[in-house]
Amino acid sequence: MKKLKLKLEPYRLNVPEWGSGDANNGAFIIKSPKDRESIMIIMSDGLDWEHVSVSRKDRTPTWEEMNHVKNLVFEEDEVVIQYHPAKKDYVNNHPYCLHMWRPLRAILPTPPAELVGIKSKSTGS
What we know:
Strand order of the largest sheet: 1-2-3-4-5
Number of strands: 5
Helix content: 10-25%
Structural class: alpha+beta
Shape: globular
Number of helices: 2
Number of domains: 1
Largest sheet: 5 strands, antiparallel
Distance between the termini: 23 Å
CATH class: Alpha Beta
CATH topology: Streptococcus thermophilus LMG 18311 protein like
CATH architecture: 3-Layer(aba) Sandwich
């Protein structure tokens, strides 16, 4: 996880129950790259996990918005994941919230690129 002083610090909310307010914990409101409306970000790093929740008041964040937050919060070579848990393990405290997770003591496996799609030689994607 990136240290937040440069990118997100100006957008920090003073809500102690949402994070200790250090470089890897806290609550922030940024503008969506899609429609300039507010996006709430809550970050934490406990129990050997980095966690980022991303929500909007009116709808679930889009892929573009999640990717924007991922690029703000995590280093470009860090892999993060969105889990789809078993129904019995669902927790839903906000109807329009998605989460990104990264374990601190494990490397997340990723599928081979050819199973995802065709990689362009010019862009690397």
